[in-house]
Specification:
- By secondary structure, the chain is mainly α.
- It starts with a helix and ends in a 5-residue tail after the last helix.
- Helices cover about 45% and strands about 10% of the residues.
Length: about 290
């Protein structure tokens, strides 16, 4: 993972660095803030990196996720106030997220392979062939609310999520500073923000009109929040785009939105260079940092 690659790189340069991965499945910024307050401060970290994903915005303003309650914050004039804590027991077993769309499988392995590659890599061609009757066209799917962070129009629930998100980030910055440490936010773009073929698939599935959506909107707003609160923001999007070689090697899995080995290596390299540029690494690493 990126944390392991980063730690190995620093140690190879003679720095006895320890890079700990505090990521937890389904956590958003609110739970990450609490994890830092209740556990992270005891680790004595000199640098705290918050990896941020676009769906954090909406879920920072939610009191439930996957059928479970979580501690939640209310936003008042005087700042954030924690409520619904301790949390009640889970109401129901966690449910896996709904699939964006399902396609009918073919009896031919070769046809299935071609269909699969076109579904993920050439959706327009996929639907063009579907019109010939070889397989069913992509079904229309309604975009999930979390996707509207990329919408150009104002969506009240998304705005509420952003207000909560910005307040959480500002509080985390102050908490980290109080420990004598430094906070940086690393923006983790989704696959559709990096790969044009994935963006084409997203637009086709959700029937998105190009002029009404902006893939760069989340990063710009996150950068503006950092400028106001005083924490730097690293955008991994350009580096991940450069690393995308399609079938020869991609930073994302084909059937999964997570990073491949390549994606983790890119994230580690860019994070190291970013921290070196800020002067936040020990001298032994900063002097030997690779571009």
């Amino acid at each position: 993972t990126a944390t392991q690659v980063l730690e190995r790189s620093l140690r190879d340069q003679g720095c006895p660095a320890e890079v700990l991965n505090g990521g937890t499945a389904a956590y958003s910024t609110d739970q990450e803030l609490l994890a830092y307050q209740w556990q992270g401060v005891d680790l004595g970290a000199r640098v705290v990196l918050l990896f941020f994903y676009y769906n954090d915005v909406l879920f920072n303003d939610r009191q439930e996720y996957f059928g479970a309650y979580k501690p939640a914050f209310e936003l008042h004039r005087d700042g954030l106030c924690l409520h619904r804590f301790p949390v009640r027991e889970r109401r129901q077993p966690p449910q896996p997220p709904e699939a964006a769309a399902e396609r009918r499988r073919s009896a031919s392995a070769l046809l299935e392979w071609v269909q699969d590659r076109m579904w993920h890599g050439a959706p327009r061609t996929y639907n063009a062939i579907a019109r010939l009757g070889l397989w069913e066209p992509m079904p229309p799917v309604s975009p999930r609310l979390e996707l509207f962070v990329f919408a150009r129009r104002r969506v009240e629930e998304i705005e509420g999520g952003w207000q909560k998100t910005e307040a959480l980030l500002d509080l985390l910055e102050r908490e980290v500073q109080a420990q004598g440490a430094r906070l940086a936010v690393v923006y983790v773009p989704s696959r559709m923000e990096v790969q044009e073929r994935s963006w084409e698939l997203t637009k086709t599935l959700y029937r998105l009109e190009e002029g009404q959506w902006d893939r760069g909107q989340v990063m710009r707003r996150l950068g503006a929040a950092g400028a106001r609160s005083g924490f730097p923001v690293l955008d991994l999007t350009p580096a991940l785009r450069r690393a995308d070689r399609g079938i020869l090697g991609a930073p994302y899995f084909t059937h999964d939105g997570h990073w491949t080995e390549t994606g983790h290596a890119v994230a580690a390299r860019e994070t190291e260079a970013f921290l070196a540029g800020l002067g936040w690494l020990p001298p032994c690493a900063a002097s030997a940092s690779r571009p």
